[in-house]
Amino acid sequence: MILRWIPFFACLSLSVLTEALKLQKYLEWNILDFQFPTDNDRVKNIVTGRYRPENALPVGIEIWNDKLFVTVPRWKAGIPSTLNFVPLFSTIKNPPLIPYPNLEANELGNCENGLSTVYRIHVDDCDRLWVLDTGTFGIGNTTQNPCPYALNIFDLQTNTRIHRYQFRTEDTNSRTFIANIAVEVGPTCDDAFAYFSDELGYGLIAYSLKEDTSWRFEHSFFFPDPLKGDFNIDNLNFQWYDEGIFGMSLTPVLENGFRVLHFSPLASNREFSVSTEILRNSSKTEDSYHDFYYSEERGPDTHTTSRLMTREGVQFFNLIDQNAIGCWNYRKPYNTNNIAIVDRNDQELIFPADVKVDRNNYLWVMSDRMPKFLLSTLDYTESNFRVFFAPVETLIKGSVCEIQRPIENNQHAIGLNNIPVPNCKFNRLFCNRQSEYLSLFNEEVFSAG
């Protein structure tokens, strides 16, 4: 089959190949729905105003085995559950969100046992889900804080919360707003650290699971760029000029045993970085100015809110101004020559809010039209929220982000042998979906030829 395709690759232009390798739409909602224990419970919640579908916006995603997690912040009233999942094996494209671990655990204002508002989440290598509850309700000037910031860790094998840590008073300030989390695990599951970006309070909080304590860094690199606060997205012009440190990613472990944390303020086009050797050391909070570094700018219209780095060192990040997903191979200098766009779609990728890579090396993207939801009105007769996926190696092939490897057989240099093989024991979906994806790839190639 691969040999049969080779002549067609020889006659394809780069633009045609790029078209064939794009993200594939997996889920799609006009408006979100939630699963309730019974139909009577659903009706009761609608009548009482505890459930208002038009007020729900999906923001964060994460993937673990047969679950796709979806977070829904409580920016407005009527959100029954802030942490949810949908089955990856769903037979429909718009499945209802299932509260995780259950509806009771998502009770607003239940500080000890509930979750008030969750944004982005992280699954680690020890099958744990790291969840930061901001303890808030509302957004902007309407924000209320019924509960403190608290980290919750769930065991995904048992669907139970195994740890809760409430942030210290010194970790936050009157402006604090934290949406992003990055997690690294050391030689053992107890040897884990988490990092939280304080977007409006302009700080970076580090947490040690083993010591069960946290500490806060402050730096001028966490502040927004005063010249980069103007945004044009989805035919809307608005200003997010006070948005500081936001998206974060961690490199693979380096020779010194540590990683590098990369980050950007939202109102900025520049990348910054710091070694986790510094962040893990609580004594460095007052003396670390020269331990942080900056890189060249990404170029105009490159605001980003979410990023991650694969195990092989390819960083993916959303480009919210361009309705696009970008990439960078950390083995190369950070500059415009080494940054590529793996996909852009001005209709379906409007505000790609979150990006994640699963254990099978597939990239997942959630788009949600957030600016229109916050500043205008969504039309719920059309599709508003989408989830896409594609193999990482397929997306970066032929770009400056591609990982260069020795080629044992030239026959394998072109075609589908570069697409990673999924673990079918735990992920039947990917076995089926990879076949579906490759069939689509086949159709694109032959129709182009």
From TrEMBL:
Organism: Dendroctonus ponderosae
Subcellular location: Secreted
Signal peptide: 1-20
InterPro entries: 6-blade_b-propeller_TolB-like, MRJP/yellow-related
Keywords: Glycoprotein, Secreted, Signal
GO cellular component terms, semicolon-separated: extracellular region
Pfam families xrefs: MRJP
Domain of life according to the entry: Eukaryota
Record-stated family: Belongs to the major royal jelly protein family.
Entry annotated with the keyword Signal: yes
Role, per record: Controls the pigmentation pattern of the adult cuticle and larval mouth parts.
Name of the protein described by the UniProt record: Protein yellow
Keyword Signal part of the UniProt annotation: yes
